[in-house]
Model the fold of this input.
Amino acid sequence: MPTASTPSITLRGDSVALGPLHPGLLPLIARWENDPLTVELGGASFTPRPRECVDADWQPLIAGERPGWHGFAIYLLPDFRPIGHANIRDVGTEHRTAEFGITIGDAAMRGRGHGTEATRLLLRHAFTTLGVHNIWLDTISANPAAIAAYRRAGFREIARVRSARRFAGDPVDMVLMECLAPEWLAENP
Ligand SMILES: CC(C)(COP(=O)(O)OP(=O)(O)OC[C@H]1O[C@@H](n2cnc3c(N)ncnc32)[C@H](O)[C@@H]1OP(=O)(O)O)[C@@H](O)C(=O)NCCC(=O)NCCS
Done:
């Protein structure tokens, strides 16, 4: 039963629900962005970032000021605890492509199927609500959990750009994956 403190929800699955990002999540997002492993698994180099910098990056996104950027908070059910965020970005091009990104920021909540379920919810949203035809992502070869979750949700690997990223100081491949609307909808009616 929703209460006044239940966040707005756009997409609901069995274990997670997704709703709009809001400024109240910024302290958590700043905590996740200051966790070196989370940042490096995301394919970026880690630099400590004060709250002001994180806020400056995220506030325009939360306010809907970046065209084609659809971001969501990921809440754990049944208590609506925020555990991560995800986005579908660069939506609205004439080619009907988009890029996908996701972070389960709460490390204790990884490996429990939540990333796979959130990805599935967002694929359906991208294809049936946003009119996306092809959605793609990049990850790193040192992130087998991400590759497994994306594959199980419906992405397939299409290429590797060799030694194009660094993880723990070593070169690793960038892994490109894609998912096509007609194929995914045929398999997930
Ligand atoms: C990537 C991420 C979103 C995946 O979400 P998740 O909730 O952890 O993933 P799931 O539990 O749904 O699925 C993980 C899969 O990886 C598998 N896995 C976990 N660790 C693994 C490892 N070391 N090697 C191979 N497979 C692994 C799990 O068994 C599971 O696959 P299965 O369901 O087929 O058994 C999440 O782990 C995360 O945010 N990580 C940190 C930041 C990050 O990597 N962001 C994404 C950058 S592209």
Observations:
- The first strand starts at residue 11 and ends at 12.
- The pocket of coenzyme A is lined by residues 38, 41-43, 102-104, 110-116, 139, 143-146, 148-149, 152 (CB under 6 Å).
- The chain has one domain: 11-187.
- Residues 10 and 19 are 5 Å apart (CA to CA).
